[in-house]
Write a structure and sequence with these properties.
Elements lengths: L2 E10 L2 E11 L4 E5 L6 H8 L7 E6 L9 H8 L2 E4 L10 H12 L2 H18 L6 H9 L15 H14 L4 E5 L7 H16 L3 E5 L3 H7 L2 E6 L2 E7 H6 L4 H8 L6 H4 L2
Parallel strand pairs: 3-7, 3-8, 5-6, 6-7
Antiparallel strand pairs: 1-2, 1-4, 8-9
InterPro entries: AAA+_ATPase, ABC_transporter-like_ATP-bd, ABC_transporter-like_CS, P-loop_NTPase, PstB-like
GO cellular component, one term: membrane
Keywords: ATP-binding, Cell membrane, Membrane, Nucleotide-binding, Transport
């Protein structure tokens, strides 16, 4: 999937959150959005995941405006997008069942019932729970393939976030939308998720990521976009944006200049 923001804007009542944003992400590409808190990063991701409709401009998926489609057609497009939020949200169930839930809800009811019947038969024949190949593969990508039968409540915060990532991957999305997925994780879990993002890119998934971690953005991104007060200030190859930014506001942000007055910082 090629996702493109075309002069996209978003506002609530009289408050403008995003203004005139033009940005794209293609298959096998990691595009990272950086910027201070309140810049509009999460809103931009919600537009990408079709959770919100732009109030100006357009968001296009493979050239089509999903908001001009029927509800059923738009749902089909949305199901090609997987989103991982900053905080993991798991069900009271096994790790495997948490990973598989996204795939199950995408199936028509007859397929869901047939799948349930197959799982019952497999469990009856083997005498123990089973896990299908796609779920196991998604867990392997995040280093949890041996934890499929654990209760999700027993997981650490980092492990839970890795399960959330695996759940998104298991649906085989064309585009992954990630909202600061490693912000509360230790270095080990962060490294595992960064490797999983690399592998997702290698498998042809497009990745749109928001992060406050400048080192992470530089490590894993093909392109970086700097968002400030709802405006896309600068975008370009990661190495160029970090080593030779074209806008002074970008330069000051990536240097980590910290002033008490944010207005002074970006004046």
């Amino acid at each position: 999937m090629n996702l493109a923001f075309e002069n996209a804007a978003y506002g609530v009542d009289d408050t403008s959150i995003l203004t005139d944003v033009s940005l794209s992400v293609g298959s096998g590409e990691v595009v990272t959005i950086i910027g201070p808190s309140g810049a509009g990063k999460t809103t931009l991701l919600r537009l990408a995941a079709l959770f919100e409709r732009p109030t100006g401009g357009a968001v296009r998926c493979d050239g089509a405006d999903p908001w001009a489609l029927s509800r059923a057609e738009r749902l089909a497009v949305r199901r090609r997008i997987g989103m991982v939020f900053q905080q993991a949200s798991l069900f009271e169930a096994s790790v495997a069942r948490n990973v598989d839930v996204g795939r199950r809800v995408r199936r028509p009811w007859p397929q869901r019932l047939r799948g349930f019947g197959r799982r019952l038969v497999d469990r009856w024949l083997s005498g123990e729970p089973t896990v299908d190949d796609r779920t196991r593969e998604a867990l392997e990508l995040v280093g949890l393939d041996d934890a499929w039968d654990r209760d999700a409540a027993s997981l650490s915060g980092g492990e839970a976030q890795r399960v959330s990532f695996a759940r998104a991957l298991a649906t085989e999305p064309d585009l992954l939308v990630l909202d600061e997925p490693t912000s509360d994780l230790d270095p080990r879990n962060t490294a595992i998720l960064e490797r999983a993002i690399d592998r997702a890119r290698d498998r042809g998934h497009g990745v749109l990521l928001a992060t406050h971690d400048m080192h992470q953005a530089e490590r894993i991104s093909d392109r970086v976009a700097f968002l400030l007060e709802g405006e896309l200030v600068e975008t370009g190859p990661a190495a160029r944006v970090f080593e030779n930014p074209r806008d002074e506001r970008t330069a000051r942000f990536v240097r980590g200049d910290l002033l008490y007055d944010d207005n002074e910082l970006f004046a």
